[in-house]
């Protein structure tokens, strides 16, 4: 360890100094939590008074740490990782001196002037605070064991999970205990007794799958019902991302007259470059419309017209938009009938698909032919709360006479009962003919090759990793996970949340989980129904978690292992080739060659376990981490010309070519070429200097040291590299068919209806076209008597915006961010005043499933009746009352399964009540720490 790092590590910090420090390593003397993994509810000891006092320093002062050398005079700027799955993949830089980070900044390679073909890849406040994540006072420093748990399944004392004390143990002890527990549990109970995090993959899943596999939970994740089966009705699905590639790239945004955003808040959710590109469109004269339950910060920045809509009622609002378009079409020519009849099936009786078994179509449903209820704005407004004039205005705005981009963020579909929303969004876009042309688009605005992104023009090489498939096909529908473990049974509905062929008729199954393993995420915190999650943890015989901070999943485990961040060692982010920054590639370097304190990489831990379990380490970890890092850089390529093809268009082309060949017909493949060239020049001297890797010299366009120093390579953006979604399909629908059965957009989709109805969780069959479904825990259920409009016990609709302070549950522990972004619950000012509340008051928010305390922020920009509880904050259960003083939305969410599709993540459908808290006001989050003491 270098002298500078030793100096910092040996410093004796209190919390106030920590908040001021720019790069606090170790901070071992910070003792805000006196016992176990407590969370600040205990009385502070004498030396911890500063820890619980509200810091006096301001944001301007936080990086004034006079012990450190002048950052302008010393240190080296290096590109460092920001690896969280917000999707930004921005360029972060750190000024490093002897292994200590003195300052951070972001991309400053390019001048970022319009017309230069280059753009800065700017990091958000989260990325620029990451030094507190790596060097934070709350880093886990060594392996720990829960004091009252013993291996063997007898002295488990599971009821103490979450409140027990910790013991420091050696790596040898920790690894021996984990290996012996895995052998015991697999040997005694079998693989169906082990539950492992859904999203985790890589070294730990390889170990578990070699032992026999594990049970996991599947959901449609962040994508809501967009991920249900969008390919079946013809929209793109690539690399687990639905409706990606359908919208034009971000450089086309200024060509739209109007951009309609259905949900979405990139200024908070991925606060780097996406907002900048929307702002460029605004400067160019594009008007914005924002549809959602609040006029959020992105809508404010873009001066958008706000179309208020209650959570989970977007389907009703858009059906009324379709009604107005039909009603007004003769007078105003709003509908592109040619588009509907050329590129779609099922809009009306004239365009039904060949496989239709129901003699119904979308148009007649909207007009009320089948149920006697025309889907008028008056019908919709009772449900969605959107003013009639807003619906009428929106219908005219998205008509075919205007250049419109319809972009969505998935948030509206993270709701129960939104099974038809994605198909309806597509239908509205098709009615206006908004596809395949510059200035027109219908698709995702999400970060990956979508509306604020673009095609991949540079990519890393592949890391070599082993893949051991899971022999267990036991998949618990996501919302049911914790309840299933507590109750011992669940409803099996198939093995996949996103493909029709992975669904199966529902079947009740017993399950008896004995071990919970959190390998690469914090799933106790990130899944709905935290209270059942804690019960599940307390029920099993063994719980093991890895992290670099004491996450909720660690807090309730028996063994906790400290892992390295991606600022330590060569831990290639193997997901990064799929998470690139469009025309840019970010390549980072480690700040430290090895882990801080006793932290080890996931691969090192897996290797040690493989040895103890008698597994073939060489087969499971065939390549070292440093070699993989090198290989990914050596294998990097850039787009050097030809016809850009996204995955679905190229696969459609190849499918059509194969069909033609089978029929003995000619198929013109001319024009389909893509040229990719090596990006990085590597000399033998580079390889020797880098050390411990095998490689061959090669010619590229930027040197090995140069790319590692500047951190970003950007392909110059020119007109020939622009992407217009669906352009190939619109120009030649025969050659580039959509992935649906008909090869067109299916507004009537028999595949969707047959697939969902085969699961059978709703006795009322779903329609093949998009109709309105009354959502579970939606607006209608907030009334005890809907027709009399008599409110029920839980009158508020909770929704869960992604917050700038964190990316899901990560980065939330950083004091700078906690100070800057307080994380209150947001509610309408008139609702708050009716409850006798003022901003800053502590409120008790209750649902059927749990209770949380938070400060409240009253705003005019939240719809009456809605309450926003930001997603991802850390749970902090008061053991006396059972109330979550951390304010997690997942404490309020229960095990509710959506109307038709069991794996939907209904995070934006939860009914709550709000009351003024008469007890002690809760502290601010930056006054609490979660630092385990042993
Ligand atoms: S948290 Fe996301 S938006 Fe912020 S710097 Fe990191 S990658 Fe970029």
TrEMBL record:
Entry GO terms, CC: outer membrane-bounded periplasmic space
Cofactor dependence: Mo-bis(molybdopterin guanine dinucleotide)
What biological process terms from GO does the record include?
A: anaerobic respiration
One molecular function GO term is: oxidoreductase activity
A Pfam family this chain is assigned to? Molydop_binding
Residue ranges of every copy of the 4Fe-4S Mo/W bis-MGD-type domain listed in the record: 75-138
Give the Gene3D superfamilies listed for this entry.
Answer: 2.40.40.20, 3.40.50.740, ADC-like domains, Dimethylsulfoxide Reductase, domain 2
Region spans: Disordered:
35-55
Source domain of life is: Bacteria
Q: Which UniProt keywords apply?
A: Iron, Iron-sulfur, Metal-binding, Molybdenum, Oxidoreductase, Signal
Q: Which InterPro entries match?
A: Asp_de-COase-like_dom_sf (IPR009010), MoPterin_dinucl-bd_dom (IPR006657), Mopterin_OxRdtase (IPR006656), Mopterin_OxRdtase_4Fe-4S_dom (IPR006963), Mopterin_OxRdtase_prok_CS (IPR006655), Prok_Mopterin_Oxidored (IPR050612), TAT_signal (IPR006311)
The UniProt similarity line reads: Belongs to the prokaryotic molybdopterin-containing oxidoreductase family.
Name of this chain's protein: Dimethyl sulfoxide reductase subunit A
Q: Which organism is it from?
A: Muribaculaceae bacterium Z82
Query: Which lineage ranks, top first, belong to the organism behind this chain?
Result: Bacteria, Pseudomonadati, Bacteroidota, Bacteroidia, Bacteroidales
